[in-house]
Write a structure and sequence with these properties.
Oligomer: single chain
CATH architecture of the largest domain: 2-Layer Sandwich
Order of helices and strands: HHEEHEHEEHE
Largest sheet: 2 strands, antiparallel
Number of domains: 2
Strand order of the largest sheet: 1-2
Helix content: 10-25%
CATH topology of the largest domain: Alpha-Beta Plaits
Number of strands: 6
Structural class: alpha+beta
Radius of gyration: 17 Å
Number of helices: 5
Distance between the termini: 44 Å
CATH class of the largest domain: Alpha Beta
Length: 166
């Protein structure tokens, strides 16, 4: 039996795992999923454990961890599913919602500390905790900030949409 690793948010919410968000691993072209047989090799070889199969299709779950763009899913796939090469970013960025703790007067910078590219910074606000600001151009969409948010205020959003709540 495998032991499930809980993120901080999953622990605080009683271990309930959110449904996979419909985000494909990096490098899968739009038509590439047609070649997927659902063998699960990408799931087995993902070092962070974020790849899961939903209806036989690989999708990512950022509530567990982040994508490191290591390419293990593409290298282990026996079918021509990963045809776009190894991507260094996703087609989405993240958005920080109004339930973010600094917007509630509570100091928290967990997302900033987890962001490998420094896309999330905190600016000072008179009389309150520093508030997050996202530089969407620097965001790779890796999901590192999502799994560490204790209140689930960080989520993926299409690029071009409002990238951060300010």
């Amino acid at each position: 039996m495998t032991q499930q690793v809980l993120s901080r948010r999953m622990f605080l919410s009683g271990g309930r795992r959110a449904a996979l968000a419909g985000i494909r691993p990096p490098g899968i072209a739009e038509g590439g999923l047609a070649a997927c047989t659902g063998c699960g090799q990408c799931v087995e070889h993902c070092p962070t454990g974020i790849v899961g199969l939903v209806d036989g299709v690989p999708l990512l779950d950022f509530s567990v961890a982040e994508c490191t763009f290591c390419g293990a899913c593409a290298q282990s796939c026996p079918e021509p599913v990963f045809t776009d090469g190894l991507a260094a970013r996703f087609d989405h960025a993240v958005a920080i919602g109004p339930s973010c703790l600094p917007f509630q007067g509570v100091d928290c910078q967990a997302c900033r500390d987890a962001c490998p590219t420094g896309a999330i910074r905190f600016r000072p606000v008179r009389g309150g905790p520093f508030v997050p600001e996202l530089t969407a151009e620097a965001c790779t969409g890796c999901g590192a900030c999502i799994s560490v948010c204790p209140v689930g205020a960080v989520a993926t959003a299409p690029r071009g949409a409002e990238a951060a709540h300010v």
